[in-house]
């Protein structure tokens, strides 16, 4: 028995040693295939983007030839290599996105800064809509203390300023004297007198004299109407409305600068004030040192002076410039040059805006 077991072990050892080595084992002399690696990486990125249902961008676009949407005319170009388009894009400030796949792949160039701004504006509008959809109910007593009534009215005023709807329900508590409908209407009108500049009654009042209830339905306007000024305004000049903010980075392209100046001119023509923010930093992440990636305050002042020179005769600085070293930003405050004549409103006929030349645009790109 012992001899049989020993012979069986020797047979198993010989059969295992006689098995050939696997043929798919990696060879130490095999070369690295860069094209195959990049193709596999591109395919992996495309699969991940498809799982996330996100738009395909840049190298994740699985097409060798595409048609490009021209930013100026919106027309489609002829088929051209995807790699040649990607080579002309600054990945820090722009990106390429696949907008259509059939019948032919179509791509479009997007500005990162503008897209972030639009997303922020859309989120702000969504919050405003959500605030307006708020509906609250506030209960008050006919004999509430003046301090308690003023506190609740101030809270209601804050909700109305957000654009919400508020139902004010005046009720009679046990032990309080009964009021006729006319007295109830009078007291309710006195209580909401301080809310009429920020709201309106969107529904008729409900009165239940037997139970001593009266409900007032208010809807906020979102803004407070200015008080009527009865003083003499014959020699007064209207104050410019609050303007918009415009940001300019150190790597903003000439095309974007021209677009920004046109928007500023449009706001100034309305009589609005404009706040220009010149940032010493770039729009995208930097791959070089901070010393080469930012501009000094003197360089920002020079670029601000060039921009104001373009708007000469159309705008002027109404406030001293501000520089914040922590954020490396220079703030320039502009308003319309001249203004309406005193005592009457006239159409401002200022100098005709001169055509922007490439030499007039301050070069904010870094060498």
Description of the molecule:
The radius of gyration is 35 Å and the shape is extended. With 367 residues, it is of the alpha/beta class. The protein has helices spanning 2-17, 34-52, 82-87, 112-132, 146-161, 181-191, 254-269, 290-293, 297-310; strands at residues 65-68, 80-81, 94-100, 106-111, 135-141, 165-171, 199-208, 213-220, 245-248, 274-279, 315-324, 329-336. The strands form three sheets. It has a four-stranded mixed β-sheet. A four-stranded mixed β-sheet has the order 5-6-8-7, covered by helices on one side. Strands 9-10-12-11 form a four-stranded mixed β-sheet.
The chain-level mean pLDDT equals: 75
| Main sheet properties | 4 strands, mixed
Could you tell me the radius of gyration in angstroms? 35 Å
User: Number of DSSP helices?
Assistant: 9
Low-confidence region ranges: 226-242, 284-293, 340-351, 361-367
Q: End-to-end span in angstroms?
A: 89 Å
Question: H/E element string?
Answer: HHEEHEEHEHEHEEEHEHHEE
Q: In percent, how much strand structure appears in the residues?
A: 15-25%
Q: Enumerate the strands of the largest sheet in spatial order, edge to edge or round the barrel.
A: 2-1-4-3
Keywords, separated by commas or semicolons:
34% helix; alpha/beta; single chain; 367 residues; 12 strands; disordered C terminus; four-stranded mixed beta sheet
Q: Which SSEs are present, and which pair or pack?
A:
Layout: H1 2-17, H2 34-52, E1 65-68, E2 80-81, H3 82-87, E3 94-100, E4 106-111, H4 112-132, E5 135-141, H5 146-161, E6 165-171, H6 181-191, E7 199-208, E8 213-220, E9 245-248, H7 254-269, E10 274-279, H8 290-293, H9 297-310, E11 315-324, E12 329-336
Parallel strand pairs: 1-4, 5-6, 9-10
Antiparallel strand pairs: 1-2, 3-4, 6-8, 7-8, 10-12, 11-12
């Amino acid at each position: 028995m012992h001899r049989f077991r020993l012979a069986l072990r020797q047979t198993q050892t010989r059969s295992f040693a006689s098995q050939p080595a696997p043929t798919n084992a990696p060879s130490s002399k095999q070369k690295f295939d860069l094209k195959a690696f990049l193709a596999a990486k591109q395919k992996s990125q495309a699969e991940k983007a498809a799982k996330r249902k996100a738009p395909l961008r840049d190298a994740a676009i699985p097409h060798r030839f595409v048609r490009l949407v021209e930013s100026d005319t919106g027309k489609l170009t002829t088929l051209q290599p995807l790699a040649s388009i990607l080579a002309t894009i600054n990945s820090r400030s722009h990106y390429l996105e696949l907008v259509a796949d059939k019948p032919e792949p179509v791509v479009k160039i997007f500005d990162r800064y503008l897209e972030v701004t639009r997303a922020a504006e859309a989120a702000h509008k969504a919050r405003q809509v959500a605030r307006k959809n708020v509906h609250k109910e506030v209960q008050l007593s006919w004999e509430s203390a003046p301090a308690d009534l003023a506190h609740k009215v101030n809270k209601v005023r804050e909700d109305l300023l957000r654009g919400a709807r508020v139902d004010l329900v005046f009720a009679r508590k046990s032990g309080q004297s009964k009021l006729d409908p006319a007295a109830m209407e009078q007291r309710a009108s006195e209580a909401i007198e301080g809310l009429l500049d920020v709201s309106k009654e969107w529904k008729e009042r409900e009165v239940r004299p037997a139970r001593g209830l009266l409900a007032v339905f208010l809807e906020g306007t979102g803004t407070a109407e200015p008080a009527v000024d009865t003083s003499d305004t014959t020699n007064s000049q209207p104050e410019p409305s609050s303007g918009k903010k415009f940001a300019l980075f150190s790597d903003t392209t000439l095309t974007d600068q021209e677009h920004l100046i046109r928007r500023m001119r449009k706001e100034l023509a309305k009589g609005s004030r404009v706040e220009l923010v010149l940032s010493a930093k770039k729009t995208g992440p930097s791959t070089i040192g901070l010393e080469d990636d930012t501009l000094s305050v003197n360089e920002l002042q020079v670029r601000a002076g060039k921009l104001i020179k373009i708007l000469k005769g159309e705008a002027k600085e109404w406030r001293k410039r501000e520089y914040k070293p922590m954020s490396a930003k220079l703030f320039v405050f502009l308003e319309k040059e001249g203004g309406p004549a005193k005592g009457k409103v006239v159409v401002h006929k200022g100098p005709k805006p001169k055509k922007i030349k490439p030499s007039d645009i301050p070069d904010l790109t870094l060498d």
